[in-house]
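ok so for the tutorial part 2 we go from a plain amino acid sequence to predicted structure tokens. step 1 is just haveing the sequence, like this:
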Amino acid sequence: MPAKTKSQFRESLKGKFLCQDKFSNDIEILVKENKEMNYIEAICHYCESNNVEIESVSKLITKPLKEKLKWNATELNYLKRTSKAKFMI
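step 2 — the prediction. this is what the tokens look like for a chain of 89 residues:
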């Protein structure tokens, strides 16, 4: 298979299956479009809308998205405001 065809094939697969990049990008878009929605709510909404089990999402969360989730959880008092607080995902 030529290199150009392989890359086109990979890109078409990315659109059909969830990967970390697509998931994080979709969550970022949801948060930007809905100003009232935080990252935690966006992930829950995404899972409901796309029939994705929330338990399977932990594998799709990138490090930057995890930091934003941690910040949201701290702001909502789900985590203590310490540097050692852990948000279990």
